[in-house]
Amino acid sequence: MFDFLQGFAYGLFLSCLPWFLAGMLDPRLAVPTEPPTRWRVILRYAFGIPFLAFVLWLTSLWGGFSPSFLGWVAGLAALAVEIPAERGWRRWRARREARRRQAAAQARARQQRADAERARREAGVAELDPAAPPADADDVVLALCRAKQALLEARRADLAGHADRVYTRYTRVLDVLRDKFDAREVTFDRSRAMVVQVGLTAADNLRAMGALAAGVAGIDAAYVRRRLAEMGPRGVADERDALQRRLDLVADTERRLAERAATNETALTTLDNAVVVMSRVNTDRPRAEVGAEQALNDLKRFIDKAERYGHNT
Q: Strand ranges (DSSP E) for the chain?
């Protein structure tokens, strides 16, 4: 055993030189770690592996000085086997870690979608599908679907959610109207016409937002900012001016979108106010022939008479 270990130490030590030279020419040949660099080659074959061979040699001295030929061969071939094996092991670990990160990202995405769905349900926000509008969709709902589709095509899903909120408020107002008024009444027609106008105004505003967003959809603001930072103050003046004009276009568009989003919030507040006010309207005719106070007094008098009747009998 000690003679094999001693021969292995000699063979391992002698194999360091050719691997060192190969690694200095191309580090990918001799270094299984990422990134393969010449510093890693120097640390590995000028210090690490020779130190390991020295420790093995010291350990084998307990058995005397008789290195075996089989140990020599094993030591010379050890690195040729170890480098591909270590490289494969590291790649397997990297793939396993990538799969773990991907699974964790998918789990987080599912959780975020579930949280968003729950938040929408709690807020009472219904989601429109532009490709499949509701079966009972009127002009307002169809206009909201078209506006949402335009915003999605402009890659502004954050603004497309405004269409869902307007749709939710609009349908809620119509439900309250149908509950409080008869469809044959003039009040119902007038109220519904005003609600429809508010909905159409919001849909037009969303469609205009889609057109604004589509105008700057092709501008990569992150790239422009990164390019300006790379150029610094010594960059070409014409290129800097062109890049700055792109950023100005994006900033101006975002400002206009924010203004129109604020207009949408006003429309949503108006619809919410309409729901609250109409919910307070009492259009039900009382079915009782007397008032509540009189009915309670009559019931009390009847109970008193019943008690006296019971005592007399």
A: none
